[in-house]
Amino acid sequence: MPKDDKYEAELDDQALERSLPTLTEKLRSLQEDLSEEEQAVFSSIVSSAALHLEAMQAISTTAQVSYAKPISAVATVGVRQHLLDLPETLGLTED
Amino acid sequence: MDLVAKMTALGVGMTQAERANYKFLLSLAAGGLVVDGQPPSRPGDRLAFTTAIKSIAQLQPHRHRVPPNGVVYLGRPAFVSEALLNDLRRESAELREKAERFDDHFVSPGGPIAQEVAFSEQLNDLVSTVADHVTPTARANYLYYDRDGLGIDPHIDNEAFSLNTILMLDHIYTQDPSRLVLYPPDQQPERILLAPGDLIVFYADSITHARERMDKDEVVRIAAFGFHPIVEAEATA
Predict the structure, then answer these.
(1) How far does the CA of residue A33 sit from the closest CA of chain B (Å)?
(2) By CB neighbour count within 10 A (0-12 exposed, 13-18 middle, 19+ buried), where does B174 fall?
(3) Could you tell me the pTM of the whole model?
(4) If you ran DSSP here, which 8-state letter would residue B14 be given?
(5) Parts of chain B with a pLDDT under 50
(6) ipTM of the complex
(7) Which residue, among B28, B98, B117, B132, would best test binding to A if mutated, counting the most A CBs under 10 Å from its CB?
(8) Between chains, do B153 and A56 touch, taking CB under 8 Å as contact?
């Protein structure tokens, strides 16, 4: 059976990092359309992601990070930093 | 339109890379909100957790194919002989020293034996039978959880392992073994114990899942083979 490696090409580290500004704008646009109650849930999601990522980075003993592995819980330094900063970027504050 | 629908709709217009990062964000949130392996009990956190895992499941173009818990096969296939299992164990052991640590577990790309399994007619026939149109993604990895405390918090897999095929190579423990845990939307978490030789095929990009932390003296070694579902538009293109 032929392999399909197009996902590797389309989702390389550079492509993932390049997509962050436009993703952020889309999230900002979504946020603006949410009710107050929905915004609280959205805020919890974004903040929990950043806190979890921060905790995972504390666990990691090496700086070697890559997307080329089975779980998406690993990403480049650039992607990680962007997601760590996302609550602040979107003007979200923790409870 | 409820929040899950709004968050799902947002993903429709995204590029593949944007969607991958969006799923990563939601996956991180789910992992962060789980408390001791269980969905959070605080109402606000629980709603955020539920919203995240439901949105993840709904973001996939192949969502209509995904059963409630994401699992399409669980058992020991006939082609997983003791000889094959031992060959994979040997290769896995040989590659252990080259494995890299990723947060809280170790990973090595598969060697020739794992690659041969990944592209074997037997494995591809099995996955195609239970999941319809699929294509192997050229990814075959060995994962090692061989230290106290290693594991993986709730997460989803990336596009290369949309349909993840996990073969348990070894599970050594003295008591209360760790499990693979699935978090299907609107259901209680499912804790699955795989015996050596068991294979599970599940939609790992759709159903949030975790590997429970290793206890003292516990070791888990697995091989993972990636497949990607081909949706109808792709299949006929």
Answers:
(1) 9
(2) exposed
(3) 0.87
(4) S
(5) 235-237
(6) 0.83
(7) B28
(8) yes
